[in-house]
Specification:
globular, alpha+beta, binds FE2/S2 (inorganic) cluster, Sufe protein. Chain: A
Length: 139
């Protein structure tokens, strides 16, 4: 999938930029939590790392083995969640991520599911540790 040609006919300039220059790619030093999500249909995957400070997401990064759309939406997710509370970040939908990269072709709409699921799973994991159950995220 990663070998597919990126065409401006199909992808926005924002998406292409995030794919070619992913923001916050790699493991996050000092991450409080991470979540790994795989799309069972295509096999693409994303691992999202989050760090919290004073009830808000202070840092985010990702690792991806996926298609351009999943890489771009994961990249933009690490920017969109910054500074948000757990509730606010959880409320972000795949449509929000797709919109943030300038939209996705219809056939690629499902690709933004990975970023959305990874963010939600990471927050859920954080909450399950009792760390964010009051939505403060305070340690
Ligand atoms: S084709 Fe698998 S997430 Fe895009």
């Amino acid at each position: 999938m990663a070998s597919e040609t990126l065409s401006s006919e199909h992808y926005s300039a924002t998406l292409i930029d995030h794919f070619e220059h992913p923001r916050n790619a790699g493991e996050l030093a000092g991450a409080d939590v991470d979540a790994f999500v795989t799309n069972p249909v295509c096999g693409d995957s994303v691992r999202m790392f989050l760090r919290f400070e004073e009830g808000r997401i202070a840092a985010a990064s990702f690792l991806s083995s996926g298609c351009p759309a999943s890489i771009a939406t994961s990249s933009v997710a690490t920017e969109l969640v910054l500074g948000r509370t757990l509730d606010e970040a959880e409320a972000l939908t795949r449509d929000d991520y797709a919109e943030a990269v300038g939209g996705l072709p219809k056939s690629k709409l499902h690709c933004s599911v990975l970023a959305a699921a990874a963010v939600r799973n990471a927050i859920s994991e954080w909450r399950s540790r009792g760390a964010g159950g009051d939505s403060s995220g305070a340690r």
